[in-house]
Design a protein that fits this description.
The chain is of the alpha/beta class. It is about 45% helix and about 20% strand. Bound molecules: guanosine-5'-triphosphate and magnesium ion.
Length: about 425
């Protein structure tokens, strides 16, 4: 992180109710700042500063009195508010809003070329708004001072950079999981783990995945940290990873995805399209929730995630994770209070390995499934058919008597092919 040694003052304002600063604190730390002081305020938005003017003075004092050189506001500031605030604070103070903070975290963590370019695009668009505002102000002050950029050159430059970044992104190869269709034809089911940042998605992936990494024959234990990092820090995972998992004989490709957050800047949702692609194309989306949070927070988190995964084709299965932190009573209260959003959640603890068998069963139940019974003559063709079924679907039973009886379950398209193959034997 580039701002490892920076110190920040936080300011959170809500229209009503006491502001909860847990999330902005975690975001601030994830961006590499040490928090020096936290200010909260309940009042309607001030059009000039977002915060009330008196609060801005208190924040300015805190900047003078502490080592902090950055102010972080837990709201989305308009470009004008950003300028006004900066003007009121001691010279050299950086102002970041929630949007810019999330952008910083993504910028520092993006490791693939695509992710880097996408974050760059979001940053440039933000910069364009900022420059337009500065230009507007310059024009207002025309009579008083020379205009910094009379031709709008400064704005054109950022527009050109936006175009260039766009082009570079378009030149990148298609990002969808390579061989996705081929893998479906081979009988794989697609399951995506989605959810709020820090819910435990990557931890669950490690628990559910088979030992072998999808793309290599190496045991995955040696590179756990890289394939799907697990850490108590927001937005730890910024790339989608896919691993194999076997559930009741079904072969599943399980994808870990980038976490969601309240007010996730839309440019960034776009930037991490691959997360949404995994989610939209999945047969089942496992929506992982940190159930140990206060009920109201769990509710907004489920709602935030549901809004993002709205367009999925598959079933959505909600997991109340981190159940190890809750008593039976607290768990029951959450289930009752959230029954409208998550009528029948799977209760689990990824770290304690609890509830995972139930989760596997529920995933398999939600997969598109057909089943069939076959009764075939002994012979090499039937043997080949039995192997094919093992490779492409889940074989519930095979009995060798006068004939070979076989009971198979799998993706509907696979079962259709199995029936056609069996007919050619009979
Ligand atoms: N107590 C408890 N902690 C858990 C559990 N599952 C995950 N955690 C912890 O929660 C933190 C976040 O877990 P991750 O798996 O990184 O969460 P994530 O959803 O992948 O987070 P991002 O990648 O940042 O979106 C880590 O410190 C985990 O050890 C659980 O069942 N119980
Ligand atoms: Mg993760």
């Amino acid at each position: 992180m580039s701002r490892q040694s920076s110190h920040a003052v936080l300011a959170a304002r809500t229209d009503t109710g006491a502001p909860n600063t847990d999330e902005i604190e975690a975001l601030t730390e994830a961006a590499g700042y040490t928090i020096q002081k936290i200010f909260t305020q309940t009042r309607p938005e001030d059009p000039t500063y977002d915060l009330g003017s008196g609060k801005v003075d208190e924040v300015a004092d805190a900047i003078r009195e502490t080592d902090a050189d950055t102010v972080i506001v837990d709201n989305r500031l308009s470009p004008a508010q950003l300028f006004n605030l900066t003007d009121r604070l001691p010279a050299g103070t950086e102002v970041r809003d929630r949007y810019r903070l999330i952008l910083d975290i993504f910028e520092a963590g993006a490791s693939t070329k695509r992710a880097q370019l996408q974050v760059e695009l979001a940053r440039l668009r933000h910069e364009l708004h900022r420059r337009r505002e500065e230009q507007r102000r310059n024009e207002e002050w025309q009579g008083l001072q020379t205009i910094r950029d009379p031709e709008g050159e400064w704005i054109r430059e950022v527009k050109q950079r936006i175009d260039r970044t766009h082009n570079r992104l378009n030149d990148l190869p298609d990002e969808t999981t390579p061989g996705r269709e081929r893998k479906r034809e081979a009988g794989f089911d697609f399951v995506a783990l989605a959810g709020y940042t820090n819910a435990g998605k990557s931890t669950l992936l490690h628990r559910l995945a088979d030992d072998l990494d999808l793309d290599s024959a190496e045991p995955a234990h040696s590179d756990l940290g890289e394939t799907a990092g697990v850490e108590d820090r927001l937005f730890k995972t910024l790339d989608t990873t896919t691993r194999r998992a076997t559930m009741d004989g079904r072969r599943v490709l399980l994808s870990d995805t980038v976490g969601f957050i309240r007010d996730l800047p839309h440019d960034l949702v776009e930037a991490f399209r691959s997360t949404l692609t995994e989610v939209h194309d999945a047969d089942v989306v496992v929506l992982v929730v940190d159930a140990s949070r206060p009920i109201a927070a769990v509710r907004t988190r489920i709602e935030t995630c549901r809004a993002e995964i709205d367009e999925t084709d598959g079933d959505v299965l909600t997991v109340f994770n981190k159940a190890d932190r809750l008593s039976e009573d607290e768990l029951d209260r959450r289930k009752r209070a959230l029954a409208d959003l998550a009528p029948d959640p799977v209760v689990a603890s990824a770290t304690e390995d609890a509830g995972l068998d139930a989760l596997r069963t529920r995933i398999v139940e939600a997969l598109p499934t057909e089943s069939a019974e076959f009764d075939l003559p002994h012979g090499p063709e039937t043997e080949r058919f039995v192997s094919w079924c093992h490779e492409h679907a889940a074989v519930d039973s095979v009995a060798y008597g006068e004939s070979v009886s076989l009971s198979v379950q799998g993706r509907p398209a696979i079962l259709e092919r199995a029936c056609a193959r069996a007919q050619s034997i009979e």
